[in-house]
Amino acid sequence: MPFTLNEQMNAVYQKGLETIQKYEAEILREWQKILTEFKGKRTKKWEALEETVAFLSHCLFHWKKEEPQLHVKSRPLNANPFFVTFLEDTVHNVIQEHARQSDHDYMAIHYLFSKINEEGFLQQFQQNHSLESFLDYMVASTLLPIEAIAVIGKKGERFAVEKIFAKDPAVAASTNFLEADTIFGISETLLRRFHHNEKDQYTLIPVPHDDCTLLISLPKEDASRILPFILFSLQMFKDSKKIVQLTKESQEWKDAVILFNEKIIGSRSLTEALENIAGGFVELLPFERCAIFSYSSDEQIGAGLYGWHLDTEAIRGITEDIQNLPLVHNRLKLLNNYGKKLKYIQPLFIADVKGVFPDRYVRRFQLKTVVLAPIYLSAKSQLLGAAILDQGPNKPFTVDQNTVYALIKFGQSAGEILAKYSDEISLKAQRGIFRRGRLRS
């Protein structure tokens, strides 16, 4: 199973893609029917719809299966986000006609389309900030004495020219398809091609960059002065790409929160709310099992409400005095002292529950590492309960920061939903306490 939130969200994306590809023929047939209906009008909207269908067909049905990452080509200029949403609706309708679409399938397909929309819009921006555009800008600049830059890659055991950026277009055209056994050999050839009779006045400086080498042509007299600036500029370019990637990764937890809210907001009963909340924790975050517990501050009792990939009846049979869980009890004492000042409560990560939870629970549910995600009504600074999560029987794991952020928001959203059923939850807890007392007597 996925170990990080980003991996889990990629699994949701892949689930949506796999579901859609099962119905490729039916979906394409429906899209063609829509195009035919619009075709007689021959308006700009029809052209935009046609290009959007072509764009989505490429993304959904012509991606390279050996590339698990998102495979989205640049969005056509006429592609319309409204049509993307419209065509997404037709996908849901087609699948619903041929099979009962589960909530998880619906959520995965919706997430897939949202990422395609997002990536499609970003492509133009990213193309303008590619290595090629950056090198082209450096060579074209009148402020830098760079005559040419050659991008050198490996072709088997040999070095080959992949791309030339030069002030003189003729020079770039004449140096394609060059290969040599060494960087030195290809540098000598390029130096002659670039500068002919003036080659003694220029030097080619090799600069490693990612999985290629840049050969930068500079006047010898300027090389020592200009090279530090070029190296600094390339490093800044690499750093900016990393920042963009980190920003995209940090967005994943926000995507998870949006999908979680969409999943739970339509809950029409306590049972449905518990199922959606527990399912959302597992389907959208890197966890395998989830148990939802209520918390009574008056009795200091935790009572089981629901289990996902766990025996729900066994979970409902649990009512435990929080004082029997010292680590949790100490955290709750802090909450009682400072709770009114808190807008959220941090999840509690327990690397090994042995000695923290009562042995009977550790053995019965084969617990190792767990996370306690507080279910918290922030408007009233009230703890309603917790989701206890793990990655499977006897499974140790760690949690990344993005997952922590998501757990906080999931807990707040779950609190808003469960607060509507507080009386029903209290009644269930009281029954559990009574049953526990009767068994003890």
TrEMBL record:
<dbReference type="InterPro" id="IPR029016">
    <property type="entry name" value="GAF-like_dom_sf"/>
</dbReference>
<protein>
    <recommendedName>
        <fullName>GAF domain-containing protein</fullName>
    </recommendedName>
</protein>
<dbReference type="Pfam" id="PF01590">
    <property type="entry name" value="GAF"/>
</dbReference>
<feature type="domain" description="GAF">
    <location>
        <begin position="270"/>
        <end position="400"/>
    </location>
</feature>
<dbReference type="InterPro" id="IPR003018">
    <property type="entry name" value="GAF"/>
</dbReference>
